[in-house]
Fold this sequence. Notes:
Blueprint: H1 11-33, H2 39-69, H3 74-97, H4 103-126, H5 131-150, H6 153-159, H7 163-179, H8 182-190, H9 204-236
Amino acid sequence: MEHLKIASDNYVAFTFFIGTMAMMAASVFFFFELNNTTQKWRTSVLVSGLITFIAAVHYYYMRGYNLETGESPTFFRYVDWILTVPLMCVEFYLITKKAGAKMSLLWKLIAASLVMLVTGYFGETIDRESSVMWGTLSGIAYFYIVYLIWFGEVAQLAKSAGPQVQKATRVLAWFVLVGWAIYPLGYMLGTPGGLFGIALVDDPAAASHSMDIVYNIADAINKIGFGLVIYSLSRKED
Ligand SMILES: *C/C=C(C)/C=C/C=C(C)/C=C/C1=C(C)CCCC1(C)C
């Protein structure tokens, strides 16, 4: 078998490589720290580790796929998101549970995240012609999640869950508002109609490469950063 090298100017392959390493290191960290975590926060920190671990396995695969084919591993990208984004919803549920979060809130968040991702997948793959429509539907589901976290049930519950949980929820809400907003930017780069009719790059190959770099950076921020917010909450409150 031919030995594949990452060329020094291949930024896509490089960010897949670094992404894999970062997700692996973060998973080891979260899993090992479970021993130093109080009972109350153990499940939350475990879920942080599961999120980065699932991503690490997908990144390991996507890194090889991209290096061998030069293409975007879109299918496995979305498999990763469909597993990890609902787990981030679980984190919101877990930290507000003490203040009375109900299962119905968890299902609302999970359902909205699935709508957001499935419509996004249709726009990127099966029905690229209508990427604007799919992107818009996905955006609506995204804003519903933002609403729940900033002003809806999650925000209300966080208020009565004590100052530390409230502070952490606020930081996580910023992740969802700003960190997650990087993804529609990647979508605009990688789909023909862009999002809301805005396509940022005309050359399709260059567009899909820049899309992968944007998604890789966003994943590192949102999965590892998000997990670290939960981790630091688990240190402050016992
Ligand atoms: C770890 C992975 C995460 C946090 C992935 C999040 C993905 C999104 C917030 C994707 C959102 C999209 C839109 C809001 C519109 C265009 C289509 C998507 C799926 C890229």
